[in-house]
Amino acid sequence: MRTVGVEEELLVVDPSGVPVPLGPEALEVASRRGEGETPAEHDRAEPGQDGRDGSPGRLVPELKQQQVELGTRVCTDLAEVTGELRYWRGRADAAAQAVGARVAALASSPVAVDPVTTPGERYEQMAETFGLTALEQLTCGCHVHVSVADDEEGVAVLDRIRVWLPVLTALTVNSPFWLGRDSGYASFRSQSWNHWPSSGPAELFGDAATYHRVVADLVATRTIVDAGMVYFDARLSQTWPTVEVRTADVCLRVEDAVTHTGLVRGLVETAAREWRAGVAAPPVRSELLRVAAWRAGRSGTTGELVHPLTGHPAPAADVAAALVEHVAPALEETGDAARVAGGVAEILARGTGADLQRRVHRDIGDLAAVVRAAVRLSTGEQSGG
């Protein structure tokens, strides 16, 4: 069974619902408790070694002081993932409460805020190099790592899952508001993130040598700070034998993050089987994938998506069903089929995080109330909504 690890970025907010630059202080608390790294400790790590995909669970800094990131331990089943996410969200919230704040699993800030860059050489270099793209970048994603045998299998997986990644975006949308206004998107994080020059869908690689040559060529341009800034929608880990899928907004509910994790592991296993069976990767150009990703971020599960098997628009529910069917044999083998299919059905029935945010705003008319509701759902204080 392939192992999985999950990283989630969380907003740090004050009791009123406004993001506050108390992430470093919360991490100081976590560090004293043996649960996290301070910004200074994190900055001394190897360049680009941001992930926690192969190490014990931990809380670490992110680009902005209004954020913290959690990383789970390596897990073998979805029940473990559930427990890990609940535990580390709880530890992040406890550390934030110690400095007068809370955490919220929101992929963007509904309320207006001035993002503050976390101290450290790497983050400061990014801010200087990329201007407003870095200075305004206050977004929170969910990154899922799945084990692979080696880089050859990993690249074969990357080539075969790329057409399905926009569907994952659609099922996890959780950023309809952007710094005080409705963005018109279900996931504006996905739009903002693509301002980075090295982000988005990649072309087919074919083999590990080509993948590593492309990464080296990107670094050689001296445009990005280091290889850790190769922000492909899915990439190989620099440190551990995993494929990292990076397209999702951080999910408001732990249950949805677990569903997403199950889908990602199912996609990786399905792709590896196809590769071993000699099934060619779908020859879809990245221009078409970028359009598919845009549509997914625009409407989430409420409109039509580009169907990965036809290239034509289809209802989101039909496209989600096609994804579940595509990975069903792999999910059956791990015992995840009922859990993941049920999780997808629940998302389609009750809505995504973006749907809930808009519902709270429509009912109350206060964006800060959206954040407060998100705190309750993120930390398990409330299960409905």
Automatic annotation (TrEMBL):
**Lineage, please?**
Bacteria, Bacillati, Actinomycetota, Actinomycetes, Geodermatophilales
Q: Member of which family?
A: Belongs to the glutamate--cysteine ligase type 2 family. YbdK subfamily.
Q: Which organism is it from?
A: Geodermatophilus maliterrae
Enumerate composition-biased segments (Basic and acidic residues). 30-55
Q: Which reaction is recorded as catalysed by this protein?
A: L-cysteine + L-glutamate + ATP = gamma-L-glutamyl-L-cysteine + ADP + phosphate + H(+)
**Cross-referenced HAMAP family, in alphabetical order?**
Glu_cys_ligase_2
Top EC class of this enzyme: ligase
Q: What does the record give as EC number? A: 6.3.2.2
As for what it does, the entry says: ATP-dependent carboxylate-amine ligase which exhibits weak glutamate--cysteine ligase activity.
Sequence segments annotated as region (Disordered): 15-59
* Keywords carried by this UniProt record: ATP-binding, Ligase, Nucleotide-binding
The name this protein goes by in its record: Putative glutamate--cysteine ligase 2
Question: Would you say which domain of life the source belongs to?
Answer: Bacteria
**What Gene Ontology terms describe what this protein does at the molecular function level?**
glutamate-cysteine ligase activity
